[in-house]
Amino acid sequence: MADADTDPLTDVDPDRHPVVLFDGVCNLCHGAIRFLVRHDDAGVFRFAPLDSPVGRALLERHDLPTADYDSVVLVDAAGAHLKSAAALRVARRLDSPWDLAWTLRVVPRRIRDAVYDLVAEYRYDVFGRKDACEVPEPKVRERFPERTLE
């Protein structure tokens, strides 16, 4: 854990390296992070569990709730983005052909978010969950600003 006197956001720069906040016990979310690492050749994204010190600090900075979160959150130079908006903004920065998913932004947000909410509601039933956030493999771990995962 980060020392109480240490700012968990010291090494975090969402302007240069957008941060994807995710559910640390969700198997679907862990699979998505591995996917993002494989398809982000430029190494742009950083990652943090929602309930980590980095995750909580970023949520607080953007006046978002820090408990019971059912959404991926992307924090970038433009602010914090939730649900389908976060997913599409992430896709836009991935390698081709995944960046083409950005075109789905033309679908009304209410519809996109309804689909997102449906997946989020059943993600544990379909994909399962872990008892705790797993320590990522070294290639992924370097993309986590929170070094306390080691």
Structural class: alpha+beta
Shape, per Cα inertia axes: globular
Order of helices and strands: EHEHEEHHH
Q: Compute the number of strand runs.
A: 4
What Rg do the Cα atoms give? 15 Å
Q: Please mark out the parts with pLDDT under 50 across 5 or more consecutive residues, or reply none.
A: none
How much of the polypeptide forms β-strand, as a percent range? 5-15%
Helix content: 25-40%
Write down the domain tally: 1
Mean pLDDT: 87
Sheet bearing the most strands, described?
A: 4 strands, mixed
Count the DSSP helices: 5
Strand order, largest beta sheet: 2-1-3-4
Ends distance: 11 Å
Describe the secondary structure blueprint for this structure.
Blueprint: E1 19-22, H1 27-38, E2 46-49, H2 53-61, E3 73-76, E4 79-82, H3 83-92, H4 109-127, H5 138-141
Concise structural overview:
The chain is an alpha+beta fold. It is 36% helix and 11% strand.
